[in-house]
Amino acid sequence: MQFQKALTAWRCNAAARLCCFFLLLTGGEAFAAQPDQTGPQPEPSRPPLAAPAAPRFAPTQDKVVVYSGCTVIDVSGRPPRPEMAIITRGERIDAIVPASDLQLPAGAEIVDSRGKFALPGLINSHVHLANHPDRRFAEAMMRRDLYGGVTAVRSMGDDARALADLARASRVGEVAGPDIFYAALFAGPDFLQDGRLVASTQGMAPGTAAWVQGIDDKTDLRTAVTLAKGTGAVGIKIYANLSPLLVRKIATEARRQRMQVWAHAMVFPTTPREVVEARPDSISHTGYLGYEAVAKRPKRYQDREAFPLDPAPFERGDNKVMAALFDALREEGIILDATNYVFETIERMRAETPDNAPPPPYCSSYLAELLTAEAYKHGVLISAGTDSFAPADDPFSALHSELEILVRKVGMTPLDALRSATVISAMSAGQQKEMGTLEPGKLANILFLNSDPLSDISAIRDVELTVKRGVRFPRKDYQPLTRSEIEGRL
Ligand SMILES: [Zn+2]
Fold this sequence. Notes:
Layout: H1 2-25, E1 64-72, E2 81-89, E3 92-98, E4 109-112, E5 117-120, E6 122-127, H2 135-147, E7 150-155, H3 160-172, E8 179-187, H4 195-199, E9 212-214, H5 221-229, E10 235-240, H6 244-256, E11 260-264, H7 272-277, E12 282-284, H8 286-289, H9 320-332, E13 335-337, H10 340-352, H11 365-377, E14 382-383, H12 398-408, H13 414-428, E15 446-449, E16 463-468, E17 471-474, H14 483-486
Parallel strand pairs: 1-4, 1-5, 6-7, 7-8, 8-9, 8-10, 10-11, 11-12, 12-13, 13-14
Antiparallel strand pairs: 1-2, 2-3, 5-15, 15-16, 16-17
Helix pairs in contact: 10-11, 12-13
The chain binds zinc ion.
């Protein structure tokens, strides 16, 4: 008891001492000013705010680093070049030269990269980082992405308040994560009660958020697109329950305001063909394309499950309606954000936890992969997106699995699959001038592997080092996901 009392007294005194100390620091003498003083009182002096420390992963200004001796796979079409040196300056690639020709810039740091394979940082063209905003979970996903080689993602219509914060934190290097490019979502007013949209507009009445807008014939589209742009979004995602005329009008206005146009491949009742005629930059979910070739289609997004797609008309690969659609996609240069991985994810969840799984999908993974394969044969640009996260025990992002699906099930060459996850995904986000290939002037976003992904695509899991905007993230520093980070989410 005595000891307790003494301890309490000491704590009170210590607290008092701290208070006094604080008063002194903050100009405590000002409190002693006499009430009979007249005229303006001097402002109490304030301690200067300490300059914040540079963020932990901030890109450097002009530090020169030479990655010497690696094989460069630049996905631009030329064969891999062995024994090269990649010179980065600050956050950009300065030069790529044969290692034997290297004239070492003064003050350069050398990273011995002999035996390594260098390719552009991977880009996931379909994630949802803030559907039900949870900063801790999102940062965990971003960390797994980045240390596995994913240097940019396209987040396809989530809570823009949360996305803007995550995008900023990652961009300035406060957290280890990919660059984030995101969309504002437009849908018919009868879709605004969807649970995901409600979750990504918490605290607001449906349809009043600038990043999730209900659109009908009376909407002032100029204002709608401008408001969407103000959220920091770079694209409009045309999601569901919109007429062909509205889809065209939204796409036209978005282009006029220099926004990307990212549409679902079926917008209910707007068919894939009608979506393509609106000339979006990309269309999402290969499974939707099958609705073009069937007699009965759902009129609303909510009715998808009642119209499951039968693979039979597509299995021989000679479906004329599909062939014409794929030709149109190729001719218009519209990117197919295929998202094969999500169809497999739904099937896995239904098998593992039947009581707590999504309803049966309108399209099987088998059919989705079949349609992606047909698109590939027709020369359609296919980006690599996942629309879902890898399981908790996977030390790599879902994009790694999508790449394996593109090679093993869709039948792409490893190089074409890598093009999907780099240069074409960069195009899908409108970022091809900045990223997606290894070229002087582009961002120094580089994935170094220990083995050759062109021989075996699973080498993308044999990561040595990720470089994003010139900052190095060695795989050995990767901290695996913790249970508390992902509780209830994966
Ligand atoms: Zn999505």
